[in-house]
Amino acid sequence: MNAANANVEEYLTVEQLAQRLGWTPKTVQNKMSGKDAIFKKGVHFDSPPGMPTLFRWSAVLAIYQFDDERPASSAAAGARQPGESRRA
Question: Total structural domains in the chain?
């Protein structure tokens, strides 16, 4: 781990994650459920009783890691590769 990563907070609220990603809090909430969901409870976020929803920054970053063809962020944004069918 380098010095730049050492100071990054691991757990973020919806508002903090939205700010870090350049999204609105509503967009983050939309990405938590429904047809636009990219964040999965227990993987990317948790909702402990009596506490705000907390996102694991390292799990969110994993969505944006590059694979063989395209950045995973394209998948996260809902982009499809040629020939890839829409989700039901």
Answer: 1
- For 59, half-sphere exposure in the C-beta direction (CA atoms, 13 angstrom radius) is 14
Domain region containing 28? 20-38+62-79
Q: Does residue 6 form part of some domain?
A: no
Residues 6+ positions from 38 with CB-CB distance below 8 Å? 31, 44, 63, 75, 76
Q: In which element (H, E) is residue 45 found? A: strand 45-46
Q: Which among 41, 44, 52 has a CA at the least distance from the CA of 10?
A: 44
Each of the 88 residues of the chain gets a pLDDT tens digit; together they read 454 555 568 999 999 999 999 999 999 999 999 888 999 999 999 999 999 999 999 999 998 874 444 444 444 444 343 344 444 4
User: What's this model's pTM, rounded to 2 decimal places?
Assistant: 0.65
* Dmax (CA) of the chain: 45
Coil vs helix vs strand at 5: helix
